[in-house]
Design brief:
Elements: H1 3-9, H2 19-31, H3 39-51, H4 55-72, H5 75-80, H6 91-108, H7 112-116
Length: 118
């Protein structure tokens, strides 16, 4: 399952400024999970530069999107990500959880219905 599919299923879409940025971050981290260690230097800088926005603007966009997802996603989706549905995660926690979940899906070949039916 793609990063975009997960984000969309949780309630986000292209109308949110941070939508494409979040997908870009997730794709970078999926390729190299070690980049989670230094998000700002190894991920955010390249995404902000590619989008032509400041680092602060990117971080704000991502934080707002995580706030939106906290309100729109189903409780069971947060549980699949192993995040507390009652508490807004940091952007880093969210990126790590979604990357981990995508890796689990890749390994298990779980069906997309599992996510939609959550």
């Amino acid at each position: 399952m793609s990063a975009e599919m997960i984000i969309r299923c949780m309630g986000a879409n292209g109308r949110y400024a941070g939508y494409e940025n979040m997908i870009s971050c997730l794709e970078i981290i999926r390729e190299d999970p070690k980049k989670l260690v230094s998000l700002e230097r190894l991920v955010y800088d390249s995404v902000a530069e590619a989008d032509g926005v400041s680092l602060n603007c990117l971080k704000r966009r991502l934080d707002i999107l995580v706030s939106v997802l906290t309100k729109t996603a189903k409780r069971s989706q947060w549980m699949l990500l192993e995040l507390d549905p009652e508490k807004k995660p940091t952007v880093g926690e969210f990126l790590e959880a979604v990357t981990w979940y995508m890796k689990q899906l890749d390994c298990s070949r779980a069906s997309i219905e599992d996510w939609f039916n959550a």
